[in-house]
Amino acid sequence: MKKPSPYHRLEKRFRRLSAIGDAIAVLHWDWSAMMPPGGAEGRAGQLAELAAVRHALLVAPEVEELMEAARAGGGLDEWQRANLGEMDRQWSRAVALPEDLVAAMVRAQAACETAWRDAHPKGDFAAVLPSLERVLELVREAAAAQGARLGLGPYDALLDGYEPGARSAEIDTLFADLEAFLPDFLGQVLERQKGEPDVIVPDGPFPAERQRALAVRLIEALGFDFDHGRLDESRHPFCGGTPDDVRITTRYDEDDFTKSLMAVLHETGHALYERGLPKAWRGQPVGQALGMSMHEGQSLLIEMQVCRSAQFMAFAAPVMGEVLGRSGPAWEAENLRRLYARVEPGFIRVDADEVTYPAHVMVRYRLEKALVAGELKLAELPAAWNEGMQRLLGLTPPSDREGCLQDLHWYDGAWGYFPTYTLGAMTASQLFDAAKRADGAIVDGIGRGDFQPLFAWLGANVHSKGALLPAHELLSQATGRPLDAEVFKNHLRRRYLG
Amino acid sequence: MKKPSPYHRLEKRFRRLSAIGDAIAVLHWDWSAMMPPGGAEGRAGQLAELAAVRHALLVAPEVEELMEAARAGGGLDEWQRANLGEMDRQWSRAVALPEDLVAAMVRAQAACETAWRDAHPKGDFAAVLPSLERVLELVREAAAAQGARLGLGPYDALLDGYEPGARSAEIDTLFADLEAFLPDFLGQVLERQKGEPDVIVPDGPFPAERQRALAVRLIEALGFDFDHGRLDESRHPFCGGTPDDVRITTRYDEDDFTKSLMAVLHETGHALYERGLPKAWRGQPVGQALGMSMHEGQSLLIEMQVCRSAQFMAFAAPVMGEVLGRSGPAWEAENLRRLYARVEPGFIRVDADEVTYPAHVMVRYRLEKALVAGELKLAELPAAWNEGMQRLLGLTPPSDREGCLQDLHWYDGAWGYFPTYTLGAMTASQLFDAAKRADGAIVDGIGRGDFQPLFAWLGANVHSKGALLPAHELLSQATGRPLDAEVFKNHLRRRYLG
After folding, report:
1. Which one, of A171, A71, A142, A228, lies nearest residue A415 by Cα?
2. pLDDT tens by residue, A180-216
3. At CB < 8 Å, which residues of chain B contact A?
4. Most exposed of A134, A201, A292, B331 (fewest Cβ within 10 Å)?
């Protein structure tokens, strides 16, 4: 038998790394959706050990040697070259970190997440501060080490882990553009809303099992396949699992079905991206999704561009009434569309509308940059948070529960992640705009509950490409322009002032 | 900082191995209880890669070196010495196997399990034969390699993996003893049953959620802690997960609540053993359960010795009536006791009563010995199975669904496991007998739904000892006698002819 080439030996190694990563993903899902509280300590240990094992397999000397040999050997096709590039990217980020730091981060994040679960409902930031300080200390250590290796500043080193190639200087420019636009625009939208008739809010209660049945109906229409996925409950909605076994979650508020439903539709956007990744490249770096902006671009394309549109409501309103067993003026498509397009500044990011959402992101983006740079101390975070909210949205949270304790991200070790939400909103706008221009049947299809034309375009232009191209290149190829705020701003103008 | 000793470096390594093992256990549970069918291929890959990683970490040269250094260094206490002994046992079994064989076995088992899930309902043995042949081929390869290393015959090498120290020659003797006893005894029991008034079978339907509520009530009374465990549904009841997050499953038949309930109580016996393992030794080999005979001894102690007793029924019958919303003669404790003590030869092992169960085990034990030895071909299995059933129970299965396809074990790679069920029944009898002699409050407690005295004894004499002693030594210390069939036979005589 011929000895496998260096490239094929790398594929074997990365198949193993991917399997460990998939196992970690399932264990994370289980933690959030299934695990009893007494399992937390053991689970944290499992995740830390798997992360350390994964790290050790990735930074083993033979990986670097094999990558050099594979590059020198040549003869690779486009996908294989991109795969090798992604391997190198993963390796470069990992080799900067000692194994002990990797395991310590997982443990510190798990401890802090557990502390946060207790402190969040009480709004008790002081209770979680020591564990958060430990998390940030390790994150800064990792950021410095990765930054030194990659020639990036510490914050960019973190950002690059979620959004390969992104730099905070570019984000600053994009966000400055939006910030110049949004406050005025928000004022106009609120002014206009005042002059409109009241939206009728459907009266609850809506039993959780009916809400679930409604969600199942709509996500099956979108293409979610329960032979390859699950819908469960967790405190915070998320999409986890693996491409062939995608696990999305939501939580049900029996007084208000609208948030839960839209959360499920959002996660379905993530799920369908994962499902659409190139099957031939399962388990290889090039077969994985691009960064978080493209991922959030998929979820926001479904949630914001598609599911809050008049066309989608024309299809979905009768289904909602039928499955929830209601009828009347509140259940008219136009009322539901307006319900889902209401703009109102609020404290909570995950409840924010499309117009005020970027302000939430900008507050966090500035704060996390300052915290990582050491220019802000964690003890000063609550005050700095409240000041940011006051400045951008004119609101001061009544307690840290509605302030700096509301998101799990930082407590869970996700630093440098927040800006991708708003990059994702821009990405979603640009992609949907290009899709509609490419195929006139897309919008009509949505109105009939036929999403095939939309997913045909997304499949061909985004999902099936995996990580073949860098995100900015894929976006340019798919939409004809680099990422900017223009299409997003036009979308907002059309929807809220049109 | 002082360099960690060889022994402590081993503990660190085995903590990692244990964490990977725990992750595998959760992924297995998920497969059976949660995973959508489309996840099977990916999950098989995850399990194979984790098994290979675990194997590689266990057989790495430094483990052998560290074990030698730890032994030479001395200064270890009793638990540490036992821990080192268990490490050596795991290492010796693993080092006999090449990593590729380990991964190939996991993959072959997963493929065969998938084929079995399809073939079982159809009774189509031919459909699963090729994948089963692959499984047996690899099992025999592993058995030969491990046997050569451990100085055991191939079957004993497999058996030793489930029941350390057990040898088929001893099992032959124990089983011969039982086989000399059971046929006559069964005849007497059936004769006696004929002369008794009919048992009243409670009429269904019993909605699954009511059955679940009943199970929860009773297992909470036994001490099952939902902060450290779950109860879910799967095709076959099992106990999985980890000591601090024990996952038991059952399936509900809405026409008959009795089987599901007893299955949950059985798995609770396993679960409480896991929960009671010494907390200080979590993640170390000595902190794990003894072999399958002791594990099955715990589940059968709860199911057969405790929960089918008159005392338990006095406590449980009113709870059953209350939670299922029924009353009348069928729900009297004595009727339910007799219902749960009915003896009737049947085709299906998992539905068998206490008296006929050993016959099912003996059929499988002989067949698997012959198959591993190469004295029987898999193609001949259906006929050999039916012949064995005819000889021992006077029954011929109508199809392979009720015959050699009924159990997942062989298809899933568990060879050398079956005899531990009957060793477990003997173990359970001996332990319960000793417990009752040691503390007169145990039986009274059961009648009041107070299981604290029982678990105090089990905790002190079995659970908290982990793998400190070999199973036969622990049993001798706890009960004053080695494993034999006498106490079990006496128990059967008392219950069925007393």
Report:
1. A142
2. 999 999 999 999 999 999 999 999 999 999 999 999 9
3. 15-16, 19-20, 22-23, 26-27, 30, 34-39, 41-43, 45-46, 48-50, 52-53, 57, 225-230, 241-245, 282-283
4. A201
